[in-house]
Amino acid sequence: MDEGVPRVPEQRRPGSPEGPSELRFDVLGPVRAWRGDAPLATGSPQQRALLAALLLRGGRTATAAELIDALWGEDPPSQALAAVRTYASRLRKVLDPGVLVSESGGYAVRGLGEGVLDLAVAQECAAEAEKARAAGDLDHARQVLNRALALWDGEALAGVPGPYAEAQRVRLEEWRLQLLETRLEMDLEQGCHAEAVSELTALTAAHPLRERFRELLMLALYRSGRQAEALAVYADTRRLLTEELGVDPRPGLRDLQRRILQADPDLAEPAAPAAEAPSAPARPAQLPATVPDFTGRAAFVTELSEVLAGASGEGGDTGRVMAVSALAGIGGVGKTTLAVHVAHRARPAFPDGQLYVDLQGAGARPADPETVLGSFLRALGTADSAIPDSLQERAALYRSALDGRRVLVLLDNAKDAAQVRPLLPGTAGCAALVTSRVRMVDLAGAHPVDLDVMSPDEALQLFTRIVGEERVAAEREAALDVVAACGFLPLAIRIAASRLAARRTWTVSVLAAKLGDERRRLDELQAGDLAVKATFELGYSQLEPAQARAFRLLGLADGPDISLAAAAAVLDLPPEDTEDLLESLVDTSLLESAAPGRYRFHDLVRLYARACAERDEWPPSEREAALSRLLDFYLATAAGVYAIERPGDRLVDHLATPVYPGLTFQDRHRAQDWLYAEAVSLLACVRQSAASGLLGRAVDALWAAVDLAESGTNSKAYESVASALRAAARESGDPRAEARALITLAYAHSVTGRFDLADEEASRARELTSAATDPLASCWSSNVLGVIALYRSRHDDGEAHLTHAIESFRACDDRPGEASALCNLSRIHLATGRTDSAVSLARQGTEMYDAMGHALKGANGRYALGLALTQHGRLPEAAARLQEALKVFRDSRQRLWEGMSLFRLAEVDLAAGRPAQAASSAETALTVLRGIGGDWRRANVLLVLGHALSGIGQSGRAQVCWREALESFEALGAPEADSVRALLKPLAVA
Fold first, then answer.
1. Residue 63: in which H helix or E strand, if any?
2. Average pLDDT for residues 124-136, to the nearest whole number?
């Protein structure tokens, strides 16, 4: 907010009294009075000092002598009493009648209602927060404290003279810092460690001798996995206290250092309860129904029940261990049936609830542990607002929520131990049953139960018990052939044996012959409802023709789910008709409604639907046509999103022309929402299309969705799909498709910081574009090569590539591409000391973007211009341009460039002599860039953070940052390593 623009009280104090005539007063900043939204004239500084002194007395009378002492202290003017009376008279004319009253030779402010004085509101908020914290409601306590802290508008009683005002300023500032400490304590208790580091870094710089801030910073760093920095904070603090005050750190700080050195496990997790404190804890009961005719597996049931009893404390045991039983085996071996049956038997031993999730480990897209933890936390009574974002924080909160409870967790169909570990309880009294198609030998402490296929002897025994000894003895070899054809899988053996037992005229050899035909084997392996396929077939046979067609064609598409619009493309129907069909399939349980407007198949139902498509869809070309329409839909819509983000960009004119239309959007925010919501399904379709003869359009769809490469969330998936397309194009001998795939892959590699790989891919793309006569791809490859050369400090090569790119973009009449290359060339000039031309080039590119209405690319231009202005020494302009870029990047969900803009702002602050602000921006950049950008970018941020920390006297932390940066630069062979060694060399010598 600009200085001089008065605050509207209602915007600051939601609980303030309403009505246009209500008086309001502020003292937590400049002393102000308001009537409704209008500021009142409070007069000279001495007159405001009188008003402040009366407001802070809470309605009590202040004598004239007390007011004179408050305003002037021991040296009042000769006419002090007359001045006080004049000030009071003037204030009476401004305020409502009866507010400022004369009494016993003094004055008082009376009749103020609730919420009229901002200080009183802050005190009420602080008291409410204290009560909420005592009741365990940390989420509400934090919200209320944040409301209190938001009431400060700079320094309390700002600009008010006099000894009384000065004393009150000190008191109010100390109280504000205490409130900050309390709120930060609760932040850490709720697991917000990484977020707190940036704020605490700035606070320790502003208040270097305040040990509680240092202590909280050490704890936040330690819980963020930055132990060395945490210890460095202690070393910096001890040195500072010794030099400034000649004292040692207080016992609490010393004790924390000792506990960090000892890796005290109690420090690793917050001790706070869940954010909400319901009177009765939630007791989830999520187990699927057990089958009523469960048989066999008696030994396993007994074994698993004993393990669970040991965890629950049955039989007199106190439940001293947290039990994990891992049931492993292939599909059809009976893992889920056994686990659910055992879990139901054990329910009385786990009275606080049972959690269940299908982790979809056998599918192409296993469940994300972060998502599962969110679901579990909600089931355990945690409010959505209290659920953190990162996997580590969610896992810690989950374990805390289970502490003191007896809960059984069934993790079904897990992919691997890495997926399972965050989902395991961490305390005694709880237990977990895990089923998976892989044996989890690396799941520490788990009780393994191998439910693999039977041995030939065991399989033959099962077959014999069902069919009968006499029939099997007469045809033992045929019986062995049967169980071998069943793959020794218990379910398949039971089905085959049951069929033979029901047909007395069949011989074992007849059954063996039937199973010998691989094309019909699955059809033969069914006996009533023992075959899953038979259950699906029953539902499928009852569908109307339109429903059956929808079921078959939708099963062809890869991806975890499908949107209504995408399904309409697959079916070539209007959205309204498509929705009617899909909802009718949901009613038959052959399709699931994942969310409003989104649908998904169970994994096995999808396989069955594909089999039906191969069997029933006629003509067969309709299968290929359905997938072609789906790809067209994604290509057309992604191209539309690209065009909205980049008006005038010629890429969309050089993409394959889709036959089936896509969605259209009125603004870029809706377009972005669609792109990120459809990212996983879009990438799955592109990958699938590469193997379906649709390679050219698949590559173009990936190129149009290039924003996903920079999003962070989808960057790795984008890179994986680009790699698959490059391989498919190379195998098919399509140089145009290969060149375009290489460009997307090179770009993806550059985003993740793997510049050597990006260089190889872009160089190969440049070679292919000439042979493929693909001028726009040639422009892009030159532009990408120029950027990579910049990052690898090959400035002559970079300038040559970018000059060629500018000329090529101009030849293609691609002004946005030209602007991009100009901004990139600006950075080459900057790196080679030509700051004037660097500023000119970046400004030229930015102006071109602005003329075309490019919001997102205009932010890229402002980023380049900010860099050039920084090196040119025009720091206020640089900060303004970078702040503009940062706002757009955040709004566009471009995490990479959001983080890099924060990093560059840290450089500006450092150059401007603001190391505390630089440290805060650099810390935030590290948080935003977590998981994206690569080690090279992270090392550069650490380098700047080290300089900033050194500037605020935290040299120990600075050295830790520089050493970490050096390790990354050395591993990458980056030239920046030399400058970091130079920073550390004097320290090593000392």
1. strand 62-63
2. 89
Q: How far apart are CA 860 and CA 876, in angstroms?
A: 18
Q: Which two tokens stand for residue 228?
A: 């060395």
Contact 864, 882 (CB under 8 A): no
Q: Is 357 exposed, middle or buried (0-12, 13-18, 19+ CB in 10 A)?
A: buried
| Amino acid at residue number 866 | G
pLDDT band for position 528 (cuts 50, 70, 90):
low
The two tokens of residue 781 are: 């490859």
Q: What is the mean pLDDT of the chain?
A: 85
- Edge to edge, what strands does the sheet with 23-26 contain? 23-26, 32-35, 38-40
Distance, in Å, from the CA atom of 924 to the CA atom of 942, rounded to the nearest integer, reads 11
Q: Which phi and psi (to 5°) does residue 767 adopt?
A: -65, -45
CA distance 868 to 907: 12
> Rounded to whole angstroms, what are the CA distances from 179 to 221, 285, 836?
21, 41, 48
Chain-centroid distance of CA 579 in Å reads 31
Mean pLDDT of 134-152: 90
- What pairing do the DSSP bridges indicate for beta strands 431-436 and 323-328? parallel
**pLDDT at site 342:** 92
Sheet holding 431-436, edge to edge: 354-358, 408-414, 431-436, 323-328, 447-450
> Residue 290 burial by CB count (10 A; 0-12/13-18/19+): exposed, middle or buried?
middle
The answer to whether 562 and 609 are in contact (CB under 8 A) is no
CB 260 within 8 A of CB 222: yes
pLDDT of residue 182: 93
Burial of 90 (C-beta count, 10 Å sphere; 0-12/13-18/19+) = middle
Tokens of 833: 């000391």
DSSP β-bridge partners for residue 455: none
Residue for token pair 């009741």: 135
Distance CA 411, CA 373 (A): 12
Q: Which residue has the tokens 């630069």?
A: 969
Rounded Cα–Cα distance for residues 240 and 247 (Å): 9
Q: Which two tokens stand for residue 269?
A: 């997790």
CA–CA distance, 562 with 164 (Å, rounded to integer) = 68
Tell me 18's DSSP state: P
Categorize the per-residue pLDDT at 645 as very low, low, confident or very high, splitting at 50, 70 and 90.
confident
Q: What is the pTM of this model?
A: 0.61
Query: Looking at residue 3, what DSSP letter applies?
Result: T
Task: Return the pLDDT at 608.
Answer: 77
Q: Which tokens is 799 given?
A: 């300038």
Half-sphere exposure of 197 (CA within 13 A, CB side): 28
Q: Decide if pLDDT at 811 tops 80.
A: yes
Tokens of 567: 């399904």
The band of 275, judged by pLDDT with boundaries at 50, 70 and 90, is very low
**Stretch 76-95: mean pLDDT:** 90
Tokens 């319901």: give the residue: 278
- Say if strands 106-109 and 100-103 run parallel, antiparallel, or are unpaired: antiparallel
| 326 SS3 class | strand
Residue with tokens 């030939």: 456
CA distances from 26 to 42, 120, 604, 900 (A): 11, 10, 66, 39
Give the pLDDT of residue 832.
93
Length of the chain: 990
Secondary structure string (H, E, C) spanning 476-542? HHHHHHHHHHCCCCHHHHHHHHHHHHCCCCCCHHHHHHHHHCCCCHHHHCCCHHHCHHHHHHHHHHC
Helix (H) or strand (E) holding 701: helix 695-704
